[in-house]
């Protein structure tokens, strides 16, 4: 089988990588068929045994993906939202406004690293917000910070006919707006319970968690009539991991340590446009 190794650093890939990477593959008994440089990325077609690039990619300051050449181009992206498409964790931001930010951030961090159950952590965090006016949600939205590369990623994928779905353990009031701004095709998230203009401190059940994210990836691919090999997923937290492991290419983006360790592909040096390189879309084909 022919594979493609893509090495990328959207802040600038060192020139030496283009020469050293093929030699590195050959040293691991791979047969190299071709090398292509495009922008801040390098593609290498090869065949051979299992290649371990983790340590060497660190030396090159490069993010990388290895995938079958036949399924390199994708037809679907399913993306997490918070700490992925946007820098915010909106629940943390809301908690900070009312003085319980430290408590909520600690719970969020543990949940995203897989130390505690996501659904239980969400209920615990929301309970600390009970009785707060719904107007605070608008104040939190004004603090939106886009993840570098997010707008270009979604716009470029869509211009190349690739469907984009946002799936989040966060809340519909935010995912809907992010979808509208980015021009994504759909968004799926949790709902907050609001009574009399105030947060009750509870989500509307059932809670969208890691199993749901995985199912959405699978069901959307089935609806489109495509194989999972033709799907791309990206996220940062433990509740994203089943989705990342199910997708044809699952990318742990600036992820929590346990997630980065378990994912097949991780991005730590680049912005989100690294995903364009992974699916073979260069600046000239945008």
Q: What's the β-strand tally? A: 11
| Main pleated sheet | 7 strands, mixed
- Amount of beta strand: 15-25%
Distance between the termini: 28 Å
Task: Label the overall shape.
Answer: elongated
What is the radius of gyration? 20 Å
SSE arrangement, N to C: EHEEHEEHHHHHEHEEHEHEHEH
- Strand order, largest beta sheet: 8-7-6-5-9-10-11
Structure classification: alpha/beta
Number of helices: 12
Overall pLDDT: 94
Provide the low-confidence segments as ranges: none
Please estimate the helix content: 25-40%
Kindly summarize this structure in a few lines:
The protein has 286 residues and is α/β, with parallel strands linked by helices.
Question: What can you tell me about this protein's structure?
Answer:
With 286 residues, this protein is of the alpha/beta class. 38% of the residues lie in helices and 24% in strands. The protein is built from twelve helices and eleven strands. The chain has helices spanning 16-27, 54-60, 90-97, 101-112, 118-127, 135-141, 150-159, 172-182, 210-224, 241-246, 257-262, 274-278, and strands at residues 3-8, 31-38, 41-47, 63-68, 76-79, 163-171, 186-195, 198-204, 231-235, 249-253, 265-267. The protein has a seven-stranded mixed β-sheet, with helices on both faces. It has a four-stranded antiparallel β-sheet with strand order 2-3-1-4. Strand 9, helix 10 and strand 10 (249-253) form a beta-alpha-beta unit. The longest helix is centred in the C-terminal third of the chain and has 15 residues, at 210-224. It is elongated, with a radius of gyration of 20 Å. It starts with a strand and ends in an 8-residue tail after the last helix. The model has no long low-confidence stretch (mean pLDDT 94).
